[in-house]
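Table S2 (text version). Query chain:
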Amino acid sequence: MSEMYPAYCGAFRCTAGACRHNCCIGWEIDIDDTSAARYAALPGAFGERVRAAIEPGKPPHFRLDGAERCAMLREDNLCEMQRTLGESALCDICRDHPRYRVFLPGRTETGLGLCCEEAARLLLAQTEKATLCGTVSEAPPRETVELLLFRQKLLDAAQDRRLSPGGRMQKILTLSGASLPRRTARAWAAFFASLEALEPGWTETLSKLDKPVDYAGFRAVSAAWETEYEQLLVYFLLRHLLADEGRGTAQRAAFAVLSTAMLYALGAAARTENGALTFGERVELARLWSANVEYSEENMRAVLDELT
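Corresponding structure-token output:
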């Protein structure tokens, strides 16, 4: 079994109460069976408080208050569960977030999801080509090796710095036998706006593409942070290309290209409107995209169907 992850993951540290988009606000947190049993057996007044914070169901989940804050979240945006019982008492989702996993025969890959602002900041700050590291206890089966070799061709294209970002994306589409429907960025924005918005501000962000966009000016200034689009392209390939054990790779490759192209277009639109686009604003665009597209199963299905 191999367990691999991008090298930068080791530098990730949750910013806890300093996070502007706390993952304990606005998200329904499901509780795994092992944690539910542990919480049911907690003694004393704190045990009663924990159980009162849980909504029954399949699976059960922590109750959200009127401001959509987890019932265990303190006013300082720190978790009372972790403060009282330690990190080991957290349920699987709370302990694991923002990590995602891709499972293949004989291999598991872990990464950091961009819906977390610190994960997005860490990824976009990388200037070196992304590499995977980890442990290998035995060689994966042939079918996994073939999938990894196929993906590596696309990753090599994504990191070919002799090519422009657009040239890399076109090469990925060619290598994967994929294509994108012929639509403008504005038309794609309208499509994404038709899907469920998970956060306030997402629809407004997409609507910036309704206005004229200075792409020429953006190309000139964004050359200074071109590696950010490389990192995004690699991230989307690592997270999605083999997520279904190699099924639908053409659609998933197209999704990686479309996601990166749309973040470029949204960045250009924001700069046109505001006259500048800071690193923090680029981080927020990536986080918004991830939270509203990647973290909705319904939205992901709709996008992949559109790319079929």
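Notes on Table S2: The mean pLDDT is 95. The CA atoms of residues 270 and 276 lie 8 Å apart.
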